[in-house]
Amino acid sequence: MHITNKQSGTNIYEVADGIYRINTPVVIEGGLGGFSFNQFLIVDDAPLLFHTGPRKIFPLVREAVASVLPVERLRYIGLSHVEADECGSLNDWLTVAPQSSPLCGKVAALVSIDDMADRPARALADGETLTLGKHTMRWFDTPHLPHAWECGFMMEEQTRTLLCGDLFTQGGAEHPAITESDILGPSEAFRQVMDYYSHTQNARVMLERLASAEPTTLACMHGSTWKGDGAKLLRALADVLSP
Ligand SMILES: [Fe+2]
Ligand SMILES: [Fe+2]
């Protein structure tokens, strides 16, 4: 693990071939306590940053990206859904990377991004793929899972890495970059307290679709990246959500 900012503890680690996890531990005032924000940088001919992180940590994320490649090389700034930690600094990124576009699902582009962002989005339809070079991304629409109408996830098909956003969110600030131990228990403990799911009745169908893609790396936005039988873990999540 390479620390890119000593003060904040922001660090970067390659969790799959060409896929870097940028992690910033934080303390959230008002009871939540320790937490973490992760962004994923996919280094390729057309580099992609998935999630920007909250606007307030833009300088930290920029510094971490710059430790791997010149930020102006970025071509896509991706997001799962519209919240500050997913896309708070989108326009800052569009400014420092003049050839980049927002990358999101069709609903996000229609409802928010094509208005909020300084440049039009490259909007992906459900199931559509986008080639970055060596890496190929596939978009999955997951409306309201875990929350937000426009929500969706991306799977990198060569490394079978699912950029699973807020699924399996683990509380706390200190996590190993990668773990093979249980993350469902810790993420369920967090969900019981924060109730951040929408309670959509379609969760099982959508999780089954993600499971069918058979990811072996789950790149969580909050907490550790997990390695193992992703299909099994996604089905276990479906079971606890709708027993
Ligand atoms: Fe979220
Ligand atoms: Fe998030």
Helix and strand arrangement:
Layout: E1 2-5, E2 10-16, E3 19-28, E4 33-42, E5 48-50, H1 58-66, E6 76-78, H2 84-87, H3 90-96, E7 101-105, H4 106-116, E8 122-124, E9 129-131, E10 136-141, E11 152-156, E12 161-163, E13 178-179, H5 184-194, H6 203-212, E14 217-219, E15 225-227, H7 230-241
Parallel strand pairs: 5-6, 6-7, 7-8, 12-14, 13-15
Antiparallel strand pairs: 1-2, 2-3, 3-4, 4-5, 9-10, 10-11, 11-12, 14-15
Helix pairs in contact: 6-7
The site of one fe (ii) ion has 5 residues, from α2.
Question: In short, what is this structure?
Answer:
The chain is α/β, with parallel strands linked by helices and 243 residues long. The chain is 26% helix and 29% strand.
List keywords for this structure.
243 residues; alpha/beta; globular; 26% helix; 7 helices; 8-stranded mixed β-sheet; binds fe (ii) ion; Metallo-beta-lactamase, Chain A; 7-stranded mixed β-sheet; single chain
Mean pLDDT: 97
Number of strands: 15
Strand content: 25-35%
C-alpha Rg (nearest Å): 16 Å
**General form:** globular
> What structural class do you assign from the helix and strand content?
alpha/beta
Could you give the order of strands across the largest sheet? Answer: 1-2-3-4-5-6-7-8
- Poorly predicted runs are none
Textual characterization of the structure:
- The protein contains 7 helices and 15 strands.
- It is of the alpha/beta class.
- It has a single domain (2-241), classed as Metallo-beta-lactamase, Chain A.
- The strands form 2 sheets. An 8-stranded mixed beta sheet has the order 1-2-3-4-5-6-7-8.
- Helix 6 (203-212) runs antiparallel to helix 7.
- The chain is globular.
- The mean pLDDT is 97.
- One fe (ii) ion (FE2) binds at residues 81, 83, 147, 166.
